């Protein structure tokens, strides 16, 4: 059982999600706009946040960004959106979300995502991962290469951590979607390629030795 906050302005959708979460034994607090959500988040702690993006007052992106800046990355965030393009998804992940669901969605899919995120949040990570001169501090969620500190978004951190845990293994896009994005099917999205390019710009740009390599027709591999 988890303590969950749901911030959703559409009453019918909020009621549908709340009922399903309670049936699975979760404790649920529901508010209907971003400002009310921020007020509640400042007064109570939650194991997981479910945030709609488009809503009155403070939108979900702003709320997620403020929450991450104030409280860090311990509690996972799921974004709900009616906008399912790669650009929209990237905006949500860059704001600090761990996952997203495009409306309409089934409650079974939402619950599966919640289980995966809660399980991951309880895992005790290793303190440090290394590839060549790249060091990932798993406690601070920061990377360093040479003399350069590298700030990472939530999803960039997840992706880099996965690469480092599977060094020298060829990872397909579907494998990364399944294990980093918790998706078990081809969504016809290029979000993996977008985030690999983000990582390359942060950890490989300016360095002669590249760490993330493209395996043509298959996927990607990290190696020094």
UniProtKB/TrEMBL annotation:
Location of the DNA-binding region in this protein: 126-224
Name of this protein: Response regulator receiver domain protein
Organism: Phocaeicola dorei DSM 17855
Domain OmpR/PhoB-type residue range list: 126-224
Pfam families: Response_reg (PF00072), Trans_reg_C (PF00486)
Classification via InterPro entries: CheY-like_superfamily, OmpR/PhoB-type_DNA-bd, Sig_transdc_resp-reg_receiver, WalR-like, WH-like_DNA-bd_sf
Gene Ontology BP terms: regulation of DNA-templated transcription
Domain Response regulatory, chain residue ranges per copy: 3-118
GO cellular component: cytosol; protein-DNA complex
Alphabetized CDD domains for the sequence: REC_OmpR_CusR-like, trans_reg_C
Residue positions, PTM 4-aspartylphosphate: 52
Keywords: DNA-binding, Phosphoprotein, Transcription, Transcription regulation, Two-component regulatory system
GO molecular function list: phosphorelay response regulator activity; transcription cis-regulatory region binding
């Amino acid at each position: 059982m988890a303590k969950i906050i749901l911030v959703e302005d559409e009453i019918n959708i909020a009621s549908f999600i709340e009922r399903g979460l309670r049936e699975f034994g979760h404790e649920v607090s529901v508010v209907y706009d971003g400002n009310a959500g921020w007020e509640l988040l400042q007064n109570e702690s939650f194991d997981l946040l479910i945030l709609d993006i488009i809503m009155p007052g403070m939108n979900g992106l702003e709320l997620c960004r403020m929450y991450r800046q104030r409280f860090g990355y311990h509690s996972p965030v799921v974004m709900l959106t009616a906008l399912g393009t790669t650009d929209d998804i990237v905006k949500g992940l860059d704001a600090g979300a761990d996952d997203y669901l495009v409306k309409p969605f089934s409650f079974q899919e939402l619950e599966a995502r919640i289980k995966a995120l809660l399980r991951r949040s309880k895992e005790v990570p290793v303190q440090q991962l290394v590839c060549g001169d790249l060091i990932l501090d798993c406690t601070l969620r920061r990377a360093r290469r040479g003399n350069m500190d590298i700030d990472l978004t939530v999803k960039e951190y997840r992706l880099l951590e996965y690469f480092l845990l599977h060094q020298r293994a060829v990872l397909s896009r579907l494998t990364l979607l399944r294990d980093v994005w918790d998706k078990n099917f081809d969504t016809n999205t290029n979000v993996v390629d977008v985030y690999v390019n983000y990582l390359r710009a942060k950890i490989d740009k300016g360095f002669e030795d590249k760490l993330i390599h493209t395996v043509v027709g298959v996927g990607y591999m990290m190696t020094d």
